[in-house]
Amino acid sequence: MELWEKTLESQTLFEGKIVTVKLDQAQLVDGTVARREVVEHPGGVCILPLFDDGTVSIVRQFRYPFQAVVTELPAGKLEKGEDHRPAAIRELAEEVGVTCGKLTYLGCLYLSPGFSTEVLHMYLAQELKQGQCHPDADEFLEAERVPFSQLLAQVLSGEIVDAKTVALVLKTRQLLDL
Amino acid sequence: MELWEKTLESQTLFEGKIVTVKLDQAQLVDGTVARREVVEHPGGVCILPLFDDGTVSIVRQFRYPFQAVVTELPAGKLEKGEDHRPAAIRELAEEVGVTCGKLTYLGCLYLSPGFSTEVLHMYLAQELKQGQCHPDADEFLEAERVPFSQLLAQVLSGEIVDAKTVALVLKTRQLLDL
User: Fold this and answer.
1) Rounded to 5 degrees, what angle do the CA atoms B50, B174, B48 make?
2) Which residue in A3, A107, A114 is closest to B161 by CB distance?
3) In chain A, which residue's Cα lies nearest the Cα of B3?
């Protein structure tokens, strides 16, 4: 089967600080025309900082869309023109005050490919040194170190629901046989 | 640390077929006011249909935001007022032509909690019967059955990048010890 869609028209509805929203008209394989809602996002990084003692840095922050505090691995958006490896190093320092000797790329995630361009790059950070956090001015978060085994149990029980955290914890478990 | 943000104003910028885009003003813990871009999404389901012969149904479809064909587990949006269990049964039938005797809930995912309200519910489907697919009119996709071991290898190598597929394959691997 042929699988393609051709853009006929594209209209920018909103250019925000984080997302750009577009409404396109696309021609489908059978010749019909369908509307496509697209949310453009700069993408980001997520890091699993694994200390020699078997603990992992996690963060808790208020996530406005859910009006709730969500537990996640350290993560952040790419800044304009920024590569994902330096972004991972920056977010580690900002969010959990950690510098690392070893940073291993563990692949990327398309978070919501039906409507969003967001790509998230995953890293495992090792050979860590713990320092002080210095989050962005409008970023309020709590950092904590928990045993990897506890984090894995919370992912498997469904207590941790953040998609990038679930994927990166389970991928690390599988690849390192932790 | 207190973690909260209080909505001061909310403006709907776009009401689409799939997403609603809002721009809010929120008061932060320190009293400052920040803008919050929110993409509301109805949420969805993702299903891992595991046959007795160890194969899994996957689908390939053109994902417009990436202008590329993406390999995913069967999935779909919730319809208005629809619960996620019947949605999983419906999507299994529509996308891969499968009916199931056993459907196990494996928890949910917040796909992009920084800006999106999307929640995805994961199911493992077993005791399956293969029939004919009947996708929606504007949905063009290829369904295939592949060994679970192949799917797991593609997740671990980074060849499969769809977040819900990565999370659900790895969670199933861990819970069933496959």
Assistant:
1) 25
2) A107
3) A62
Q: How many CB atoms lie within 10 A of CB A153?
A: 12
Query: What tokens appear for B133 in the block?
Result: 């697919």
Question: Measured between beta carbons, which residues in chain A are less than 8 angstroms from residue B164?
Answer: 163
Reduced to 3 states, what is the DSSP secondary structure of residue A29?
Answer: coil
For B26, B145, B168, the CA distances from B173, given in Å and listed in that order, are 41, 17, 8
CB contact under 8 A, B163 and A162: no
A22 forms bridges with which residues in the sheet? A12, A38
Chain A residues closer than 8 Å to B139 by CB:
none
Q: In the numeric block, which tokens belong to residue A162?
A: 């953040």
Quick one: pLDDT at residue B135? Answer: 72
Averaged pLDDT for residues A74-100: 96
Q: Phi/psi class of residue A35: alpha, beta or left (left: φ > 0; alpha: ψ in -120 to 50)?
A: beta
pTM equals 0.97
Q: How far apart are the first and last CA of chain A?
A: 41
Residues of B in contact with A30 (CB under 8 A): 140
Contact of A37 with chain B, judged by CB distance below 8 Å, is answered with: yes
- pLDDT for A178 equals 79
Q: Which chain A residues touch B109 with a CB distance below 8 Å?
A: 161-163, 166
Please give the Cα distance from B119 to B18 (Å, whole number): 14
User: Which structure tokens are listed for A70?
Assistant: 């969500």
Report how far Cα B95 is from the mean position of its chain's Cα atoms. Answer: 14
Sketch out chain A's domains with CATH numbers: 6-40 (no CATH), 44-176 (3.90.79.10)
Q: Which value does ipTM take for this structure?
A: 0.97
Of B61, B109, B161, the CB nearest to A3: B61
Q: Residue A13 is nearest to which of B14, B65, B170, comparing CB atoms?
A: B14
103-132 of A, contacting B, C-beta below 8 A:
106-120
**Whose structure tokens read 């077929």?**
B17
Per-residue pLDDT tens over the stretch A138-176: 679 999 999 999 999 999 999 999 999 999 999 999 999
pLDDT-derived band of residue B103, with 50, 70 and 90 as boundaries? very high
